[in-house]
Design goal:
The structure is a single chain. By secondary structure, the protein is α/β, with parallel strands linked by helices. Among the domains are: 175-193 and 207-225 and 309-395 and 593-607, no CATH class; 404-588, 3-Layer(aba) Sandwich (Rossmann fold). The chain is built from 24 helices and 17 strands. α5 (91-103) packs antiparallel against α12 and α5 runs antiparallel to α13. The model has no long low-confidence stretch (mean pLDDT 93).
Length: 610
Amino acid sequence: MENMTQDVNFSQYDTIFCDSLQALDWAYQQGLSCDAIVRTSAPALLWNKNPNMQNIEARWTVDEQKKFQSTILKMTEDVFDLTLNIPGVVRELALAISQSTYRFQKTLYKAACLVESDFTEARLFIYVDGKTGPAGNMMNSPWDKLLVSNPLFSMVNYKLRNDEWKVLTTQGISNWQRFKIAGYETLIYRLAVKLMRKLPSRLFTRELLIPNESEKHIEIAASLVQYGVKITEINIESISKVEGIASNADISLIYETVAPIMRKRVEEWVAPSAVEVTMSLFKSHLENQLKQFELLVDSWSKVIIKSDRVKQSVLVNAPGSIKNRALSYVCRKNNIPIMSSPHGITIEISRAHSNMLHVLLSSSIADMMFMNNYKAVDVAQNSYFNNAKHYVVGMPLRLIRMKYAQKTDKLAPPIVYVSTNLYHMGFSASEKTDYSNAKSEQKIITDVLSKLPHKVCYKTYPEDNRRYADVDPVLRDVKSTNNIVLFSDKVDMRYLVSKYSIFVTTCATSTLGWVVMSGKPVVFIDQKNNNPLTDDAHVSLSKGIFVFDDDMHNFHKNLRNFLSKPISEIDRLWSEKKKYREKMIKNYFSTYEGGAGKRAVKIILRECFS
């Protein structure tokens, strides 16, 4: 898409929406006044505190975010109950509807950033087009959709110049490194899939269908091979467009049922002039999801063929997506069990997940769940949407093998900061805006890492889906220091564990699992307003690893002082925690020290293939 001014007189606008420095420079060249107010959420534009750059998300204080997020869980439960009572609405569709209301909160969050004058006064939106990740272009807020009724609103398109974007890769990681982590079971799995695809179906009476992979599922499938179970990978083409598609569902009735809940919420958060357009966007969003669900069901129905001769089961990763909700519906219709496991460790340690994300849990869809530990079972079973039987089998071997990743690179810095700083479109597990999170990250760099007597590696989060066009301004501070080395390649941390001696990270995410299972010292920063630990997890982790709370007095000074200790002293203090760490790992990470695949196979053979 070429840059288009669309006969827009840039000089007539005193307020614009823009999230790109490059696009803004272009707008100035087109005649935009240097005194124009630029409303943005991009940290790169807000970084130097130019008074003309206004944070459009400024209304979202921590207290406002907490209030906004605290009612989401109840909303999804109410929507689920109401829609499940509509004739013809099956459980999986009710979940998809409930999930769509959750997803729409990102749009509502953005709508709540607008003020009354945005709907009546001249406004210009500079839409940025460029290379992005698999989720498509996420670099633009939906201002064009929200302000469509404003006759004085205009949008121009800007095509990024010299544009580059990369996604997660294993490039540069040797086959030997990959094998050490993936293990022999991955080779067995790959070979079995290729071989069994060529063998006659009559040779098998049991079949495991795999639509997508995870570490644990590869291990399970490899173990099933020795019992003569056929391993078959399945998939369908993604549904990108649903315009013009008729729906069998009564969309009007579904919308009328859900609309009062959403309208009450919309009226609470947005300016009066934004109410109707936000509701209109919600209706379109809901219709799109319903049509997409039906198209996906139709596609899966052509792939999942019930066999009277062969017993089948499905092992799916992340079944909470609409694609896999449709798959689960087809499986249930054909009386085919669907099994899954959680993504890493998150729900058992994350307060954000326990507060609002239950509708996304795999246990809402699967018949059987293979869990890492009993704490995760407690969370999943207490979810309003739980539908599964839970079996604790432990972590996959890929994580268990982390304990063998001893430091092999003597030239690498002894300390690595594993950043989890990730920017979002709208609300997230954080109670702070992107700009606030960026500033918090900057403080860790300037007040802690840059002042250590040790060399430090700063590893960026391997972001697949591009949120902002500009390079993260936080990295300027990383590059300006003498003791910090920047690692910005899109490589997963699992392949780098052996390079470093001490890990520093933050946020209750699955990243923590990889470093904790290495057995090396881990320093965890618990950010109270950004995906914090649950209270119970905080108590246990504080005993097993080094935990620093960012709301404590002298937080940065205390963290800096600790990390300034000799590496040998940190190792000594780490060893003193061994007894507590073993208990912590058993409770919050992996109940068993390996054997997850074999343990799960015994259950599958008994429950599904007997």
